[in-house]
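Minimal example, chain plus zinc ion.
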Amino acid sequence: MKVRKPPLRSCLGCGREADKRELVRFVRTPDGEVHVDPTGKKNGRGGYVCATSRCFEAAVRKKRFAAALHANLQEDDVERLREEFEQTLRQ
Ligand SMILES: [Zn+2]
C-alpha cells in the first residue's frame, strides 16, 4: 500500500515545513487584497504561516507576504490581516 505524503508548505515566518493543514493560508484575491483563507481553497496566489502570532509577525517584519503574494501591504492592511489571523486562531 502506498502511503500518501501530506502536502508540505513552508511557513513565511520561520521557514519550517509543515502539513498545510497545520498552517494558516493567506491568499491574494484578484483585486490585489490579501486575506486569511481559513478553508485553504480560495483561488489566488497563496502563502502559509504557522498558527501562531509569532510567525505572523515575523512574516510581516521580514516582508515575506509582499514577496510570496506579490502584494504591497500597507500598515492598515497589516492591521486588518492581524485581526483576521487572530480571529482564525480562536476558531
Ligand atoms: Zn512558522
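The first strand starts at residue 8 and ends at 10. The longest helix spans residues 75-90.
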